[in-house]
Amino acid sequence: MEMKNLIIASTSTVHGSGYLEYLLDELALFFKDANTIVFIPYARPSGISHEDYTIKAREAFKKIDKNVMGIHEFENPIEAIQNAEAIFTGGGNTFVLLYQLYKNNLLEPLKKSVLKGTPYLGTSAGSNICGLTINTTNDMPIVYPPSFKALSFMPFNINPHYLDPIPNNKHMGETRETRIKEFHAYHTQPVIGLREGSWLQVTETSIKLKGPLTARVFEYNKTPYEIESGTELKDLR
Amino acid sequence: MEMKNLIIASTSTVHGSGYLEYLLDELALFFKDANTIVFIPYARPSGISHEDYTIKAREAFKKIDKNVMGIHEFENPIEAIQNAEAIFTGGGNTFVLLYQLYKNNLLEPLKKSVLKGTPYLGTSAGSNICGLTINTTNDMPIVYPPSFKALSFMPFNINPHYLDPIPNNKHMGETRETRIKEFHAYHTQPVIGLREGSWLQVTETSIKLKGPLTARVFEYNKTPYEIESGTELKDLR
To answer: What protein family is recorded (chains A, B) (predicted)?
Structure first.
């Protein structure tokens, strides 16, 4: 039986507060049975090193008395994932993250570990890889991963940092809504536009929207619609 | 000898004016020896069909008395490119565009045609593919092309629709400058951030910034800097 237990967050940081701060109360509960969290720093935001990124995560989790070990600190990263009490994959560049996971053969170990119940926190890029594919990331394709297929912990995709169209915007680049519409010219799975401050709480029987905001759901051939916090999404596919 | 002749524009449309309108005077001159322009509609903005997109391009070029033929209207697209008097690749999704060019084996014919002097206009996605790779596109990776390598008409990459960081922005998604910095953690070629209304005029001996605005240049391991319209970029690599 599957034992999934995930928090899939749009962002690590909401405006005006520290790294992971808005989620810490939730995370103290979520990670209550873990002393040490294995951190996957592969997404390297702004190109920072695995070491520096791990220090950042370590400082945040110190506030709720958790240790953090970067996966690059283990001799065998596959075993690190297999033996982890808890896993956190940070944000940054989704292409870089997925590339590195494929390179280190970590997709299958990650899947197995999460499906047997190891609590998993993802933020931004670390959340993107929980959907079916990374086809709906906002990130720049700075490296070429061997595939866009991701961990498929949910039967749909997400779009983190979801941004509403800005009224009277003079910039002619595509809006997020237009980009997702383009996605649906090629794929039929739903996409959840997760605004900053929102997350999905995923267990073996439920996928629930959490946080103070609504989210926007894009289903194939349907008008996009808003869902309230607390909405159950397990039947969305 | 190479006979390149390209206009590589950030956007097709500037705020408050019609499709290609801001460029039409320039294009009348640029395409003066062509009666018919072969249009590549593969990038499908908002997922519109090749037919509808071609109608849009046709209407714009009617104003300067040019015919437009969509490449999908030809029995043999490779021959269409080989025999074209002029080529225009429109914007939309860069991944979709490059995927379709690879699928139809059009990269090499396009290269050859442009290197023998066929005038080429690109806007947005149609400009992205003129750089070394599409690693610096803003678009969503909705399809998986067989490679990110592009036409390499210039020894660097561009970032079209370049957006400056917005002061006091509450959105925590990465700025364009941050994304390009992440790119330079993996690659050394320069990136030109082309603002809307700017274009590069490329010939066999020159690559010049045109239009009313400055552009932002990102070189590996250097502080980004602005260049004035008229700046010669042929030695940038």
So the answer is: Belongs to the peptidase S51 family.
